[in-house]
Amino acid sequence: MISHGVEDEEKWLAAGITGLQQNAFYMHRALDSNNVRDALKYSAQMLSELRTSRLSPHKYYELYMRAFDELRKLEMFFKEETRCGCSIIDLYELVQHAGNILPRLYLLCTVGSVYIKSKEAPAKDVLKDLVEMCRGIQHPIRGLFLRSYLSQISKDKLPDIGSEYEGDADTVTDAVEFVLQNFTEMNKLWVRMQHQGPAREKERREKERSELRDLVISVGKNLHVLSQIEGVDLDMYRDTVLPRILEQVVNCKDELAQYYLMDCVIQVFPDEYHLQTLEILLSACPQLQPSVDIKTVLSRLMERLSNYAASSTEVLPEFLQVEAFGKLNIAIGKVIEAQVDMPIAGAVTLYSSLLTFTLHVHPDRLDYVDQILGACVKKLSGKGKLDDSRATKQIVALLSAPLEKYKDIETALKLANYPGVMEHLDDGTNKVMAGVIIQSIMKNRTHISTVDKVEALFELIKGLIKDSDENLHDEIDEEDFNEEQNSVARLIQMLYNDDPEEMLKIICTVRKYILTGGPKRLPFTVPPLIFNSLKLVRRLQSQEENAAGEEVAPTPKKIFQILNQTIEALSAVPVPELALRLYLQCAEAANDCDLEPVAYEFFTQAYILYEEEISDSRAQVTAIHLIIGTLQRMHVFGVENRDTLTHKATGYSAKLLKKPDQCRAVYACSHLFWVDDSDSIKDGERVLLCLKRALRIANAAQQMSNATRGSSGSVALFIEILNKYLYFFEKGNSEISVSAIQGLIELITTEMQSENMTPDPAADAFFASTLRYIQFQKQKGGALGEKYEPIKA
């Protein structure tokens, strides 16, 4: 083909259209005057414009479509002529006198269409004559457009079953033969395009071939016509149509044509035909050129069959009957073996498509699923961790398919080759896949209930639990990391077994894995393990109560020993505030189990952490209030142990950095000496000592404020202490006298009226509310009202 520029091509197209329109004008004038000879003369001259070799397929298509429209008008004229008595046979002979072969063949096809409609000759004879004569054009583009025209005008005139053109004999065979012959010749012309012109223009020619494929004149259109012929049943398709098509596909030895035609075959013929001829279709795959993208062809075939299987359960026996899985599996193996240079991504795509097919057709055959994963592992062996993003994406799709189908991780855990495939993912993608597994468990609320399954699961998600050696020093995205570890924490909460002994084994297994996670992970993973263990402790406690002396193998004491060692691991992080909270939670659980030594040990560890590790003043305030709150709820301690722990707590309170914090912690300690539901812990004298000490600290804070700021600080501390006095007064503490309360009220009133007092609306409202409460109790009457009566508010 002549090399040319875009501007030249536009010029040649314009010239061609002008010539075509001029001759069309004269043709119309001849038609209007019923002058057949002139009509044929000008139509032949009009069609001569299609003899050009200068246009690209797209531009040639524009010219062709204009000629096509004019030929439709000419065809209508011929029909009218035959109705008026003109012999169609004479017309058929007359058009063959056109000087140039290309116009002659276009006119012959046009008259041939009318000839078939007239039924003066069998359709099969006319079609055979036309398809043979079209061999006279061997120029690729001109030949393709001519044969496309033949296909267009003949598609509704084929001698098919039930058609008005059906003859007496086996005419369906003739119809099929006509379409197949036209298809074969069109494909040869299309393939030949790549060899036209100099080698340096090969890339442009390939582009033009692709353009032709996308135009309506495409070779594959013949296959669509074949699929629409009613008489093409399964037997004819299997014995004649498919072998002829595949023979042409294989023999053309052209990468573009082979890929396109295989895809056409898969798309245009019915699913049930593909299923019944699977072996024939698959046998062609290894014979294709090595550069053909066969993975996409096979993937689309399996996708169609998968959708066919999903459409109705009634068709599933057909798949079993033809042994579809076995044939596809063997074919994929042969293709991968034949195409040595096939990228890993391509091979994994094939396995992924086969797996999707298997899950639709044989959902109950886990051995098939594992067989596919095993083949994938074999292909990946020796490759190490993959760095090809397309390959890893396909592996994630492959591994996700069983999770989506079965909605149960336990089924995936039965697949022996599942972990083997995961090992080839790079660290980043491994984490993504681990996240997909955890999401599946959360979404389906799956409880993993045996040690073996937990072990297998944690092996799968170890990318989230432990850094690989290569990634130890890599920078990590803080937000992503937190999200990953929170998902692991949620997973730990999903582990459960009714049998305490098995549950303890699960806890020990999880502990073994999470302790390898390094200091950054432990703050996320240790707390859920602790709380899951404490759930087991409370279950054991209720079982011991119900068992009436029967011995239970895993004892709370044993679990507490494990928990103590686990919390100690947090010291490497360090997160002393978190560790202290966990020690106090365990102490409270030990209290519920009446294990005094265990509870005391946990408190001791909490105190050591407070003294040695917690240095921030705010953290100390939070910690001391947690200690006081937990200790107040403990009932298991004897007098000596409780006194020791209480003394320590009050000591810590008085040593806080800021006076207001000291004051609040000290008056909170008063609750350690007066517990409502315990008659043995009601020491009114020590309660009063705590409150007086808090009062002294509040007074010192007031004076310090006066000395540093030149004005008195807020009286809020005094009001808070007054409320503590009222609380213990109501509870019957005889050491809290009316005079002490009255004195405190007067002190607050005096301070609030002082000129140096800093305005504090919140404190004013608090004090007013406290006084209203006293008035309310007086008005309420009863025993409590009598107690409040002497207080003047």
From TrEMBL:
Pfam family, one: Vps35
Cleaved signal peptide residues: none
Matches recorded under InterPro entries: ARM-type_fold, Vps35, Vps35_C
Name of this chain's protein: Vacuolar protein sorting-associated protein 35
Similarity annotation: Belongs to the VPS35 family.
Any one cellular-component term (Gene Ontology): late endosome
SUPFAM superfamilies xref list: ARM repeat
Top-rank taxon, per record: Eukaryota
Protein keywords: Cytoplasm, Endosome, Golgi apparatus, Membrane, Protein transport, Transport
Membrane topology: Peripheral membrane protein
GO biological process: intracellular protein transport; retrograde transport, endosome to Golgi
Entry function: Plays a role in vesicular protein sorting.
Localisation per UniProt entry: Cytoplasm; Endosome membrane; Golgi apparatus, trans-Golgi network membrane; Prevacuolar compartment membrane
Chief place where the protein resides: cytoplasm
